[in-house]
Write a structure and sequence with these properties.
GO molecular function: FMN binding; NAD(P)H dehydrogenase (quinone) activity
InterPro entries: Flavodoxin/NO_synth, Flavoprotein-like_sf, FMN_Rdtase-like_dom
Oligomer: single chain
Distance between the termini: 13 Å
Radius of gyration: 16 Å
CATH class: Alpha Beta
CATH superfamily: Flavodoxin domain
Pfam family, one: FMN_red
Largest sheet: 7 strands, mixed
Shape: globular
CATH topology: Rossmann fold
Number of domains: 1
Protein name: NAD(P)H--quinone oxidoreductase WrbA
Organism: Streptomyces lydicamycinicus
Structural class: alpha/beta
Bound molecules: flavin mononucleotide
Number of helices: 6
């Protein structure tokens, strides 16, 4: 069974875009998975079509002023049309990721923004299933999930470094792990619904 995954993100300066590409690369590692990487900077017909036909939607935003970016919020508000049209995204698999300048930086709030948005649409949220890293005396920033996040994937980029050098390799591996898990879960969900005879998910 084929599934489609869309990685839909906003990025002001390229850091979240780099994380988004890693999420997409992780999803692509799952056989029979078609992955589309789409920017939320322009809300055009092609974007809405890609999102509608996908089985899983993975959303990314930079953390700006302790939450999701204004561009991301504009997208979220525009999806009220989808919600109002018989909750057309209900039962899609969903997940999220964010990048910010500080190690903490209130990134959790941006992930909560995304998770609540997914819940309002009746989507099925999938988090990151990896132990936290960099939390023992022998730990290192090279550890997977070094920022210790489970609601979604976090990454950090120093404010004086461009997307050519950051986020670091461990944050990109963490992003890949999220993409892979969500694609696997989308396969299980689609096959499971078919096996028990439920209606196909809305894609
Ligand atoms: C308007 C604005 C607000 C920001 N707010 C935060 C913040 O609340 N926490 C934080 O750690 N970094 C904050 N930053 C830093 C960005 O999160 C950081 O530069 C990030 O890498 C930007 O991602 P992008 O290149 O995908 O836009 C802010 C940056 C901008 C431009």
């Amino acid at each position: 069974m084929q599934i489609k995954v869309a990685v839909a993100y906003h990025s002001g300066y390229g850091h979240t875009a780099k994380q988004a590409a890693a999420v997409a690369a992780g999803a692509e590692k799952v056989p029979d998975t078609q992955v589309r990487l789409v920017s939320l900077a322009e809300l055009n017909d092609e974007l809405w079509e890609v999102l509608q036909e996908s089985d899983a939607l993975i959303f990314g935003t930079p953390t700006y002023m302790g939450g999701s970016s204004a561009v991301f919020r504009a997208f979220v508000e525009a999806t009220s049309q989808v919600w109002g049209d018989n909750m057309r995204w209900k039962n899609k698999i969903a997940g999220g990721f964010t990048n910010s300048g500080n190690m903490a930086g209130d990134k959790l709030n941006a992930l909560i923004d995304i998770a609540l948005f997914a819940a309002q649409h009746g989507m099925v949220w999938v988090g990151l299933a990896e132990y936290g890293g960099w939390n023992t005396s022998s730990g290192s920033p090279e550890d997977l999930n070094r920022l210790g996040s489970w609601l979604g994937a976090m990454s950090q980029s120093n404010n004086d470094e461009g997307a050519d050098v950051t986020p670091c390799a461990s944050d990109l591996r963490t992003a890949e792990a999220l993409g892979r898990r969500i694609a696997e879960t989308a396969h299980i969900h689609k096959a499971g619904r078919a096996a028990v005879g439920f209606d196909e998910v809305s894609a």
